[in-house]
Specification:
The protein has 420 residues and is of the alpha/beta class. The chain is built from 14 helices and 22 strands.
Length: 420
Amino acid sequence: MARARLGLLAAVALLTAGCTAETGPQSSPGASTGSTAPVVDYYKKWANGPNPTGDPALFPINVWMQDPSSVENGAKIGRTYQEIGVEFGLGLWEDEWWYLRKEGLLETGWRVYPDPKRVDEVLADTAHARNYVGYLIADEPDMNKVYGDVFHPDMQPSAILAKADAVRAKDPSRPTYLNFGVWMGTPGGGVGYGHIEKTYEEDMRTYCAAADIASADYYGWTHPDRGDRVGAFSYGEVIDTMRKWCGPDKPLYGFVETGHPHTHGEIITPDQVESAVWNTILHGATGINYFAHSFYTEGKGEYSSVLTRPEITAKVKEVNARLKSLAPVLNAANRPGVTAKSDNGVPVSVLHKEAEGARWVLAQTDGSTSLPRSGSARVEITVPVDSGTATVVDENRSVPIENGKIVDDFGAYQVHVYRF
């Protein structure tokens, strides 16, 4: 699974990353490094993938490693997840109970990325082809290539790429998926990175070449060794960092916890979940993964915090509904020409899109290692239109565009969506 555990080297690397990361300009550069083509075009190559028709109304929302046959609140979770807008499961617990999980999957009609060990079974099950949308090749291979004193040859970059290529050759109709850890996904991730095959940079690019779709987990709101990296901004940093290794076009999904993902640290709040989701999107994430597992010092754990924490269930359902309503916008190509700055130095992340016959600007007050907790701010957004009026979507109000600028008030980590 996407592990909450981090060894000593990982903690050192994270703290080093927090100390050495420089504060960027107020207007975030993250989204501008993303694709300039509609991301949904990328999916059309897979006839059995998550979006084979390239439907712009589908924004992929996933949850990590859930058993669709499990029951929460009197219902099988494979069905409940769909009801709150989570369309895909990443992984399907590859163990002796696979057959029960598969029965639950088919009964509930959910869709998942199974383990590549099941590729032959998936190919043979043509009656249920739509339930299998890709293959989860590995989890955190960058962190598990050397763990402690144990060397894992099957987790090295070249081995992971060979494994992914073998799966692609056997089933070219579905994408490969990989989730990475802090070595891939955080600034300064090369510090403490173990057993370099070529160079750190080449290793990261080789890893990402194995993934048709990729993510990396860093739980910025709840990590026990966060230091000055606490805040929603650290989730966007992961997307920015991965873009260096994975290129501008590859789908990268934001990874956000919904519970207590470490034995120590804090439990995430609903508002923090929302802020983290949007920060990944404002930095160019093209899908979302929720990590629902929780762990505690006394050894207890539970695996569906999205569903067992009512306040989180409600917030996730609300956020997912908004993401889906904006899917044609979020899936549109990124456009240049928009910058933002605040009146008090709080960084601002911005996205500029063109969709449905209009321009769209999405903005969020951000944070940084020097300003880890975002605060309220008055924000000036420069847009490529001299004058007019912008509708603030879902807020029942509008703002003027004067001299090519929108000026608006933001709360901490608040997101505004402007249409004009």
